[in-house]
Amino acid sequence: MADKIIRMGMGLLVGVWVARYLAPQAFGALNFAMAFVSFVTPLASLGMEAIVVRELVKNAGSSAGKVLASAWLLRFLAGFIAMGLAVVFIMLIRPGEVSSQILVIIISSSILFQSTEVLDLWFQSEVRSQFAVVPRIIATLVASAIKVGMILYGCSVRAFAVATVVEIALVAAGLTISFFIFRPASMRLKPTLKIMKSLLRDGWPLILTGFMIIIYMRTDQIMLGQMRGDAEVGVYSAAIRIAEIWYFIPMSVAASVFPFLLNIKQKSETIYYSRLQSLYAAMTWMGILFAAFISFFSPLIVRLLYGADYSAAAPVLTISAWAGVFVAQGVARGKWMVIENLQRYTMWYIGGAAVINVALNFMLIPRFGSQGAAYATLVAQCSASLVIPALIAPTRPSVVMLLASFKPSAAVAGFQLLSNSLMGKAK
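RESULT FIELD:
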């Protein structure tokens, strides 16, 4: 939590300053490059995060070094391939635009440093994540200071792309140092072909899921940049950065209530579904209250944070804030799906929402620009939360409960559950 709050807070504060300094055109070019590179990151990660943690827990001791080294080597090799694909694709879709190509080349180099993320997975398997969090926080603070210095010295957009890579490189260095300090003396890093094959075999379905998530979450910025230009991407990115800043709250709330739901289900199905309904209501009304606040103050928020150059971001921010209602609902329903062992249907939600998002972007962006992209995301989020699950029999009951959570009377019980869970009284 401390890691997320510090990194998101610094990201917002420094990010706003960077956005004001670069102006929509250059800020949009930077965000377009980052969104573009994100399309190949599922290939670089190989979808193996949870699998590696599982194998590290199962193979504690000397065998853990083999698992870790195999995963590290795989991700490093996959990173080279992903970086190459990013460079080739940007040259194909933006031929002759040297500036965009250079930004993508710079940012894609960060993929190579991300191979060290497997060391974080070892800390997770040992329940010692604090040793991985500290390097991240330090890297964020150092990179933020560098970006502030760049603003004061009047650096170009390419310098900020380099700063993004430097931040990830600092995290990589910190994780590596922490690992070699705290790893067991008996651990030997020795990759094996057998383990590498096993990790690839178990991880490839998750690679597909990762691609679907990226299409769902980032295709709007790519399509916006291609159809309306980088300045529109700058306006859109400024808006969604504010709209998404609160997403860690429903994630934290759902995580805190999750153990109580598990315990209650073992005692009484009736009480379990009553508490689940309250959780849905709490999430829904947190989203509604946040969206209502943003809708009322969006012009003031944008003007204070970004300045007059980003005035077009205000309506985009309003639309994007309402998409957060369905994001919060999806987070809550995700816990129910884990309890009921229905998480296999998640791919249907994400895949269906991705198709809807792309189709609506094609129709709305040419006419409405960044607002069209925001509307496409809103409809896609609503579809993932309510429409697509209603078409699947096992998940249909959750849709009925989510719709019921919109009742104002449900808000009282929802916030009561939230209050009790924070004080350990949800049982």
